[in-house]
């Protein structure tokens, strides 16, 4: 019994960790998923009318790259359904992004029963950080990586007449921009894994060499070009985020959380 008691948080925080059965967890998860789907649907209908304006921003990098290389600034499509499907996809993705704060709040509500009372105040920093990191990754790709990649690709084949379809261009754009946005969420992923005790800062530091190798492999997959410079541009922020994530893992790991609670209880 003494060993079990030693694992419990201070009495002031015991009420912050209510016990839930497996079925109650499933019911809570179902509720959060339904709310999130409704929010995304509302966001989709709100963004549908602006799909044309959104695509104008998406195609600006390719238009500028074509202009710099003296080529016709026009994309094409091969099927009558392509423009409609394109705007459908854009409306869905834009709706998901608009609804993301609400969706993230639902995720937080699902995991918050497993947190101490003092840790639940981090809901807004969590939401701000998640959205902010995704936007930072997308902006990094849109402003720096993607234009440089397009200049390299189009300039390399400038002796040919390009016929770039809206479908192929959109897929390339989303691969780069969304890929970097997701990659920039690495600290959030580490936050959850360390919070559950799956990984620790010590484990991450011991495996830093292998992690950097994996980062460069991911960068090579995401980057649309084959040159080393663009791959390094992709990989550099990922390595920096990995180092930042080591600090986050140390802060939120159960051992550190328990130590902080014990110090507060003294």
What does this protein look like?
α5 (82-111) packs antiparallel against α6 and α6 crosses α7. It is built from twelve helices and no strands. It has helices spanning 2-7, 11-14, 22-48, 51-68, 82-111, 123-156, 166-183, 186-195, 201-206, 208-222, 228-252, 254-265. The two termini are 21 Å apart. It is flat. The model is unreliable at 1-17 (pLDDT under 50). It has 266 residues and is an all-alpha fold.
Question: Strands, helices and their partners?
Answer:
Layout: H1 2-7, H2 11-14, H3 22-48, H4 51-68, H5 82-111, H6 123-156, H7 166-183, H8 186-195, H9 201-206, H10 208-222, H11 228-252, H12 254-265
Search tags:
single chain, 266 residues, mainly alpha, 12 helices, 77% helix, disordered N terminus
* Relative strand content: under 5%
Shape: flat
Order of helices and strands: HHHHHHHHHHHH
Distance between the termini: 21 Å
Structural class: mainly alpha
As a percent range, the share of helical residues equals over 70%
The total count of helices amounts to 12
Largest sheet: none
In brief, what are we looking at here?
This protein is mainly α.
